[in-house]
Amino acid sequence: MNEQQLIETARRMVANDKGLLAMDESNPTCNKRFAKLAIPQNVETRRAYRELIVTTPHLGECISGAILYDETIRQHKKDGTPFIKVLSDAGIIPGIKVDSGAKDLAAHPGEKITEGLDGLRDRLKEYFQMGARFAKWRAVIAVGSGIPSLGCIEANAQALARYAGLCQEAGLVPVVEPEVLMEGDHSLERCRETTTGVLLTVFSHLYTQRVMLEGMILKANMVLPGLVCPKQESVNEVADATVKCLLRSVPAAVPAIAFLSGGQSCELASARLNAMNAGSKPSLPWGLAFSFARAIQQPALEIWKGDEANVRAAQDALYHRAQCNRAARRGEYSPAMEETRVLTHA
Ligand code: 13P
Q1: Is the previous residue joined to 148 through a cis bond, with omega within 30 degrees of 0?
Q2: Catalytic annotation, pick one of 25, 111, 177, 179
Q3: Residue range 3-339, CATH number
Q4: Do residues 134 and 174 touch, judged by C-beta distance below 8 A?
Q5: CA distance 207 to 195
Q6: For residue 177, how far is its CA from the centre of ligand 1 (angstroms)?
Q7: First CA to last CA distance, the chain
Q8: Which residues line ligand 1 (CB under 6 A)?
């Protein structure tokens, strides 16, 4: 393991107030999002959509790394240029999702375990040779009556730690993502308690597996009330609860925490990230960045709708969200930004 290189890559992944663009939807997830908009679900439309994303002008001003999926990392622009080269030329570090999805956890109804450790060492070697410099593994933790169980939290935390160790061995920075889901009617307080417990368990396993914390990124959920909880706290209350939870559970050696959006609206995800950075940035031990999929891509996908004629307008929308989130890293986002869109093709 080249420690210095891992530390340097992790630093570059969150440098200059940029963040990560997650475009690593598995084929079933991507197809599901296409189906909602009546976009044909096949390898060519998925390729065309990903070409739209990676060729968005000026994307590298706000995005430092892009997380790809196995199908996507092997794809090319229509003119034959590999996506990996397009990203690298734009100053964007290519990353790769390496888990093989969340499956039912035996004897734990309603809970999932993320799989993908078998053969991972060889896959990581191949991705590194292809040009990837970081990887992602997502564990999902559902909140409900009697869950999450200790069995679910422990099994997922151990898998995350084993994945992270293998990544560092292969020269890839692990993005460690234990996601406490928003689905449900649980309170913000319940999400805070659950997230704290999950993160403490994950870091205990990372320690046991000898993962170098300086050479990883934590991808965390914000501390939020459940989607259908009747009480929805304000932007500042969410920001405050999230920062307090992370201060209690994430070691200072971790360079940055990049949030997932998890089903929040684009505007709320930006506003909450902004409130965290505006309020406490100078006193925090790690950077607070973003690694959004839906909260960056969704408006672009809805404009594109599978039609070549809409590519430029969709790219403008993607660039706009990337800009809003970079501003949020600086504590400079405001809802007024939503009205004043800079067009990348202007
Ligand atoms: P969302 O931002 O859409 O939650 O996706 C982030 C992600 O990469 C989930 O693994």
Answers
A1: yes
A2: 177
A3: 3.20.20.70
A4: yes
A5: 18
A6: 9
A7: 45
A8: 22, 138, 177, 260-262, 292-295
Strand-pair partners of 178: 139
Q: 0.90 cut: is pTM over it?
A: yes
Are 307 and 322 contacting, i.e. CB atoms less than 8 angstroms apart? no
Buried b (16+ CB within 10 A) or exposed e, 71-81: bbbebebeeee
Residues β-bridged to residue 66? 21, 94
d(CA 172, CA 89): 19
Question: Residue 234: helix, strand or coil by DSSP?
Answer: coil
Domain boundaries, the chain: 3-339
Residues 278-316 have pLDDT tens digits of 987 678 999 999 999 999 999 999 999 999 999 999 999
Which residue's C-alpha comes closest to atom 10 of ligand 1?
138
Query: pLDDT tens digits for 146-190?
Result: 999 999 999 999 999 999 999 999 999 999 999 999 999 999 999
CA atoms within 13 A on the CB side of 161: 20
Residue 178 is which amino acid?
P
Residue 13 CB-density burial (10 A; 0-12 exposed, 13-18 middle, 19+ buried): buried
The residue whose CA has the least distance to atom 5 of ligand 1 is 293
Contact by Cβ (8 Å): 218, 180: no
**In the chain, pLDDT over 90 holds for what percent of residues?**
96
Structure tokens at 266: 């684009």
In the reported structure, the alpha carbon of residue 283 is separated from the centroid of ligand 1 by a whole-number distance in angstroms of 27
